[in-house]
Amino acid sequence: MSGRLYKVEASGNDFVLGVGGWAQRLAAEPDLARRLCDRRRGIGADGVLAVEAAGPARARLRYRNADGSPALFCGNGTRCAARAAVELLGLPPQLAIATDWVELPAEVDGPLVTLVLPPPPRPARAVELTAAGRSWSGWLLEVGVPHLVLPVDELEALDLAQVGPPLRRHFELGPEGANVSFVRSGSAGEIALRSFERGVEAETLCCGSGVVAAALVAMAQGAPKRLVLRPRSGDRLTVEALGNLGSGPLRFSGATRFVAELVPTAELLSP
Question: How far, in Å, are 47, 129, 161, 169, 220 from residue 125 at the CA level?
């Protein structure tokens, strides 16, 4: 098959990324996405990225979760796609990435990739939920996809395998549910967080759009307009509000990494 297939990751959020013919297959075949993302019988990933050139400084990204379902946006996946567009497709380091949500300006500086995101369409909405035998207070907002942000004191002690599923599918969040970010504020403008992602249906080491959602909630409560966020992977990501909070764009930056070029076997590719 023409094209190339890679394992990539950003802050521990890992993906199978395809260009050329592989991009076309990843975009069109949910069963293939599920097989590749299987962590026991496949390659293992949180999702797949189909990346194609769409102009002299524009790339098209289509994303599928590990369960094969499409998603409008993946923050870390989009950063990986921007780097791939530059290093594999020959696009310039300042480019646009067309996602199924919106088209986003991106800048690639080696492994460091920055996206400029629009503000959420609506302010964060306060919610009170009961799930997993306890009450939760937090905020619901959209950063391409829905996010539930829940401040907690006992971040490391939380059993996300237990509390994540009923929160992610809570009826108050709508029929599609939401990604869930559990957050704890620290010193010097830093926020620690853990993520339970829909479509993966498990904890991931980082959710990029969840990082942005957590930063927006913190800023709305008086935190600085530039924050450092540390997901479960321990990596350092930054979110900065440009202009007025709530109406201005957001700059989201962090490192990306190419892990390996892949040559799947016929057995893996066959249904």
Answer: 28, 13, 25, 17, 11
Q: Give the single-character DSSP code of 28.
A: H
pTM: 0.96
Give tens-digit pLDDT for 202-250.
999 999 999 999 999 999 999 999 999 999 999 999 999 998 988 999 9
What's 81's DSSP letter? H
- List the catalytic residue out of 37, 80, 206, 207: 207
147-183 per-position pLDDT tens digit:
999 999 999 999 999 999 999 999 999 899 999 999 9
CB atoms within 10 A of CB 171: 9
DSSP, collapsed to helix, strand or coil, labels residue 71 as coil
Active site residue: 37, 74, 80, 206, which one? 74
Q: How many CB atoms lie within 10 A of CB 153?
A: 7
Encoded tokens for 244: 């007025």
**CA 39 to mean position of chain CA atoms:** 18
Kindly compute the dihedral angle of the four CA atoms of residues 176, 75, 203, 226, in this order, to the nearest 10 degrees: -110
DSSP 205-237: S--HHHHHHHHHHHHHTT--SEEEEE-TT---E
37 labelled catalytic: no
- Domains and their CATH numbers in the chain: 4-114+257-269 (3.10.310.10), 125-248 (3.10.310.10)
Residue 251's beta-bridge partner residues? 116, 240
Q: Which residues does residue 94 pair with via DSSP β-bridges, in sequence order?
A: 107
Tell me the torsion sign for CA atoms 221, 225, 226, 231. positive
Q: Which two tokens stand for residue 261?
A: 């070029």
Identify the three-state secondary structure at position 165: helix
**207 counts as catalytic:** yes
